[in-house]
Design brief:
This protein has helices at residues 14-24, 27-33, 37-40, 45-54, 56-70. With 81 residues, it is mainly alpha-helical. The protein has a domain at 21-70: SAP domain (Transcription Termination Factor Rho, Rna-binding Domain, Chain A, Domain 1, Orthogonal Bundle), CATH 1.10.720.30. Helix 1 packs across helix 4 (45-54), helix 1 packs across helix 5 (56-70) and helix 4 packs across helix 5 (56-70). It is globular and about 35 Å long. The mean pLDDT is 88.
Length: 81
């Protein structure tokens, strides 16, 4: 098995990432940061997950925003606000 110690996303599901991002940002802000229709038109966790699981480039953008929002450069979790 490959070690994942330098991967801050290891063990964090896409659903958990999206739910935490939604707790931090509203749908409008998410749509501004990542311009995809699942954040613009009738946004929901369920519809967003369906789209993101099928669309790798959009999922990658969500993962990058998640890491940028919640992790320091060294890969450790930022303190809660």
């Amino acid at each position: 098995m490959t070690s994942q110690k330098n991967n801050p996303l290891h063990g964090i599901t896409l659903k958990a990432q999206l739910e935490e991002l939604r707790a931090e940002y509203d749908w409008k802000t998410l749509a501004e940061k990542i311009p995809v229709n699942c954040f613009y038109q009738n946004p929901s966790i369920k519809s967003s997950l369906t789209f993101l699981r099928k669309t790798e480039w959009a999922r990658t953008k969500v993962e990058k925003l998640y890491v940028w929002t919640f992790f320091k450069r060294d890969g450790t979790r930022k303190e809660d606000k």
